[in-house]
Amino acid sequence: MAAPVHNAVVTCDFGVAGHPGRDYRAGAGTPVRATLAGVVVRVAVDQVVVESNAIWHIYDHLAEPEVRQGDTVETGDRLGLATGPHLHYEERVTPYRAEDRRSPRFDLHPNTRLPA
Fold first, then answer.
1. Over the chain, what is the mean pLDDT?
2. What pairing do the DSSP bridges indicate for beta strands 72-73 and 101-102?
3. Which terminus of the chain has a smaller tally of CB atoms within 10 A, N or C?
4. Using an 8 Å Cβ cutoff, are 34 and 22 in contact?
5. Domains of the chain, with CATH numbers?
């Protein structure tokens, strides 16, 4: 498991004032990485969704998604670049509706090495 951005600093946590995910400080151009290995199930203008073990990992506020629907990604693979000033990260369990959100559980210690 990996944090979606290197040296992750949480700027807004899940559930604060109804917030549906976790926001991480990420300036424009910050690489965004997969928290777990899985299959890319959706790519939009500013969003990538990776499915892993019946969990959707949703990455919002991407300036330049670098993966395509159907791609397989490994933990730590680069998904794209953040628009800044933060990355919104969310987890949903099957059947993946808005009400199926849960507090994100897939972070690593900030000193974890990620691929270049």
1. 84
2. unpaired
3. C
4. no
5. 10-97 (2.70.70.10)
pLDDT of 103 higher than 50: yes
Nearest to 48 by CA among 56, 59, 39: 59
pLDDT tens digits, residue range 13-24? 888 887 888 898
C-alpha–C-alpha distance, residues 43 and 108, integer Å: 24
CA 79 to CA 64: how far, in whole Å?
A: 9
- State the pairing for strand pair 22-25/31-33: unpaired
Pairing of strands 10-12, 22-25: antiparallel
What is the CB-side half-sphere exposure of residue 8 using CA atoms within 13 A?
Answer: 24
Q: How far is CA 60 from the centre of its chain?
A: 7
77-103: average pLDDT: 91
